[in-house]
Fold each of these.
Amino acid sequence: MDKPLVYKGRGSISNTAGRFEKQDSVAIDDGWGSLDAELPPLKTEVLVDSSKSVITYNDSPDVPFDRSINPYRGCEHGCIYCFARPSHAYLGLSPGLDFESRILVKPNAAQLLRQELGKRSYQCATLALGTNTDPYQPLERQHKIMRSILEVLAETRHPVSIVTKSALVERDIDLLSAMAQQGLVSVYLSITTLDRQLARTLEPRAAAPQRRLQALAALRAAGIPAGVLIAPVIPALNDYELEAIAKAAHLAGAQSAEYIFLRLPLEVADLFEEWLNQHYPLKAQHVLNLVKEARGGKVYNPAYSQRMTGTGNYADLIAQRFRLIAKRLQLDTGLPAPRTDLFRKPEAGGQMGFDFFT
């Protein structure tokens, strides 16, 4: 029989090959108890991403930005619901355990960014960070790629928006605070649940929920525009926490709140179902039935007008609840859009001008 690959500190319980691979392998018990032993820790492997550019552009009508940067491909946080997991298949890797244990880093991201911002054709608009994988995931403590990117953006007075589940964002409060004084930055802390036990299995290497709230409070104390992203809302698992998360974020100083309904594109659907059956077997079918109800009878509907919030009675109820609590707490106005009129091309030597802080 197949055995789930339950590694401590990892989200996925399988490492099935991506959709482009012709072969796959699974661990099978041969009847002699060969799989009975506890699995050893799964170490993270760091690979170098040799991409020649760092800014990714999109024309999606349901996202508020047209460009983003992802310093890392793959994410150690291991969130089982992460919609970015299928992107690992393009690398010949599994969207399962490979996604959270084989991470590609872009060590020259800041240098590439400087080159792209310096092009004569470049037109300034807000850069989004944290839209695919978390720029403040654990590897950032060592590699400091996000820090180097922010230094370039601060030097050039380039607007940026950040989404993260990590308290490591506090490390860069000095840069973010200076940029906030010029209206160049906004930050959203993504909070899925306030239940520590659920968070430990759902997003095993992300900061604990209370720690994220503390980071949110620290950002606000430093004068940085910050809000909460309640994501994803999962039927029958964390949906009852919608109001509680919004209230906790409000007490921490959040200025705005947004939410995203659970998205299960491509391989994520099977990975999430495996996870449900392993950790919440009695709820699994109920959760999936509600997901399908909000997706027109399917596990996922990628239509631009529906993928973020879903449709139908259940999805409408979530939307109404969110609107009410956001209005009651005055979290429904959104964060100020970062300014774009202060941008200046990077200097050839990469030296920050003396007038930055004036």
Amino acid sequence: MSAFAPRAAGADDLDAIMAIERVAFPDDAWSEASMRADLESPHTAYLVLEEAGRVVAYAGLRAPAGSADADIQTIAVSAESRTRGRGRTLLTALLAEAATRGVREVFLDVRADNAPAQELYRSEGFVEIGRRPGYYQAVGVDAIVMRLDLRGWTEARTARPADAGVCT
């Protein structure tokens, strides 16, 4: 499990976030303008993880005030920081934020060819509810649509020690 706590992302993190974004998603990276808009939106919560003063991962949640559902917008970890629990740390922090906003269901899209991400989401309780054929148009890859019952996830987390999870 990551020993590093996520912190809220801001406009000052945009360059570091975009550097990770372009490497993690070379065929369909968000534009800088889109990422800036998301970072500044009152409807989103973005987090970053730092190591040695450098942003190594980020994640975003869209959860408008009063909405019963939310969407995981993105999670990306720099190549050198993968497989050490950074993605799980960010995911669980986003889910906790969604819970504080009164969200009941969380949705996300994940590439059909990204087995490690799918396993992470399944291990936290997300289930596949559909597919979007060719959603990632630049490469013709399907998106798997997943859903999480946040109340059930919160109850399960409360019932087990925080460090009982499996790291990815």
Amino acid sequence: MRSFPLPLALTARLSPVAVLACAGWALTSGPAAQPAAGHRTAPEAPAASAPAAPSSTAAPKRYTSAPAPCAGVPAAVVKSLVPGAKTAGKEIPSTDSELRRTCSWNALKGFDYRWLDVSYEISGSDEQARKEYGQRVAEKSGGGAVPGLGDSAYSVVNLTTEDKQETREGVVLVRVANALVVVTYNGSDFETRKAPGTDEINKGAIKAAKAAVAALGGGRAQAG
């Protein structure tokens, strides 16, 4: 472990002690300071040792950066979920591309419209990611856990209607150590004005989430 220098305040406190110790040595070791006959000087007290420098106990982060999001979903998965979309996807600009990255795919084939978003968010610690995951799950009540995906995973599907046009949207949240993966998948049929079934949207979102979690290796911290 790397040792840290003493804090400035502590160094300032110890400096006068060192000066006094040097002055005391000069007074007791010079010719004028010889002890009188029959008398002995008291043994010198041992010097107090400086406190040990504090050591860091923070656990190392598993992920230090977000992987390329448009590479997070294989072309075959994109084709099956968003027919007609360009498989390369389009990355959405981010204020901090090291920690937050999102890719989007969308297409209208015939009258069927599909939209898929995949986002990676890297937190400073597992605890921070766990807290953020819990808050988002609470905001999207009505869903359920997705077993066997990441450290924690949650899926929810909702139906909205605007001007008699239905849209069904599925959201999957996954936490893996200090990383969050967020998948949004929705669809509409502009001919029937109906939305795809709940099962179709939910399974599609989970399928994309599994692929995105597998791609997290690109953001894994390098072993030291």
